[in-house]
Amino acid sequence: MRTPRIRPDAFNIENLTWAITIHRNPSGHLIGVLDNGVRPITPLSDIVAPHGIDIITGIPSNAMQPSHPHGTIVASLAAIGLQFFKTELNEFVADANILPIRILESFDGMFQVFGLINAIKTAVREHGVRIFNLSVCAQSKMYNEPPSVLAYQLDRLAYDLDILIFIATGNLDEADIQIMHSPEWSNNEFHRYPFHFYDPEASTDCHVCEATNICVPAESLNNVTVGATADNLRDNTTDLTLSRELPAYYTRKNHYDYSRSVNGTSIRQGQINRNISKPDIVMPGGDRMAPSAGMQVFGFGDQGNDFYTFDSGTSLATPLASNLAAKILNRYPDLNMQTVKALIINSAERQLDASFLDKVEKKIKDKVSRAKFGVDFSSLSKGQKAQISKGFNKQNLYRNLVGYGQPDDDNVLYSTDKSVTLVLEDSIANRTHRVIPITIPPYLLEREQSKRLYIKATLCFKTYPNWGNHLDYNSLHISFNFARQVDGALNHAANVIADRTDSFFDQFYQTEAILTETDHDKVQALKAAERKKAMGIKGELKGWSEDYFPLVNKPCSNTQQLDIHIQKDEIAKVSGRIVLVLRCALKDNLSPALDAWAQAQASHPFSIVLSINDETKLFDDFSLYDELVAINNLAPIAYLEGEAGAAEVEVETQV
Hints:
The chain is α/β, with parallel strands linked by helices. The protein is built from 16 helices and 24 strands. The longest helix is centred in the middle third of the chain and has 18 residues, at 314-331. A hairpin with a 5-residue loop joins strand 1 and strand 2 (14-17). Helix 1 (70-80) packs parallel to helix 5 (314-331). Residues 638-647 have low confidence and may be disordered. The strands form seven sheets. A seven-stranded parallel β-sheet has the order 5-7-4-8-9-12-13, with helices on both faces.
């Protein structure tokens, strides 16, 4: 734990102070802190820009004179990140320098949407800021509510300016938490963790589960939304949350609930897209209500005993993610911001499984079962259980709380001999497939044991948002898959994957089942199964990162992830060659504004990050890193310089 100490000041007069020094990083990127201002207290005096932006008064210096420490705390965590909590250290070089952007009088209240937008534009134009932190937010979102004006405006900024804004999910209201845990209400199961997150049919005088939905503008698609775990980065102390690795009691969840109707109409299966989920990630934020469960952070030091204080919230988790983005740009300054987003998400993992939601799942499923079939869930048939589980299950709720999980600093920034991170920045035209080959090192076919490779890939791309259209807010579909390279020539492989009628598949249709079947629909189904087998690395081709059928009715996401374990016999089956396949399609019947954009946009940029891991633990004499670099054109992150390219082929197709 940090404690203030007596140190001499510039005039050699001893004063009680923070006893921590943060030096400016001459090559560090600026983070624009959109908050109530940042006071350049002694530890921050070297890293806060001399002139901020103030949309309240228009006087830049006022951005450095906040009355509440909220923005100052946020700035300190954005500047040095998780290092702050290494209490054995008291001297740091900042990962990021800070541009204060004052959008609030205090740490809460209303802010001007267009004043905020103009402030971001000014920060980009005059200061070159590419990373922004927004730890304050507006009202919570109702279930299945369409994107807000503010989310739309931030999505446009991210699209037009190639910036990335890290946005807090918001916290469950502190006053509500206090009442929910008062003697009068504390015994109500609906107020206890984790039951309070979800039960649409339950309500009390002080709580409904809709109050745990994300706040505006956390639904922004092009930016990064950050929730919080209960970890205080000091000890294992929690209060309301069961464990420090779990989503904190106060953090908020995705507001899309496909089991609920919209305007009295049920959501059809074809309209469901679980890739559209917020938050994207979580970072430590401490727990409530006991002060000991919070994180130790800076105070102003005005009163002589407030150099440090304890706090918790998604406001603290969000700048830890912003800091990670700054570290990436410091090391690889030429990356585009969707690549930064993909790197962070691809490194994320959920720290625990979803078993902490077992009782919530049972409670909700029993309620739905009794309402629909008159019996508890355990008494249903297999088909009935599947029907209810499509609407609600603990895995989906967990994803709605933590997104892809918590990023790992080392996995984001570095490759090792046995774990390699590859980056691809490129673009793809509408109605085309793109095929990128990956050659697997031959040493992985040696020795016994079946486990060989684990590959995880994350796709991110910025989308031009379609204001006022819920289903078509993102009209651009890009998705990807892993397949075997089905033919020696790469251009033929692209055609085969893009065109189901390609003659290559004829050789696989000579089966008795297909040749003797007379029903046309059954023949087509059998042929589809054979095509999947022909293209699959494993038994058959896995599902794509996102299904696009029917594209006209399905909302599209711009963040997707796939992973695959490849065994020794599967490497042999594909002759050591696999391909990463991308496809692109724009929705039809676009509005005039979207149609003009689509006509002007010849191709659409995307970023894919792949982590490739040697799972064997057998080959100390081989380096996966060196072998991949030697036989592939993809750029490993450790040597990344600007755009990463690959030998690839793009072919037109009807998707």
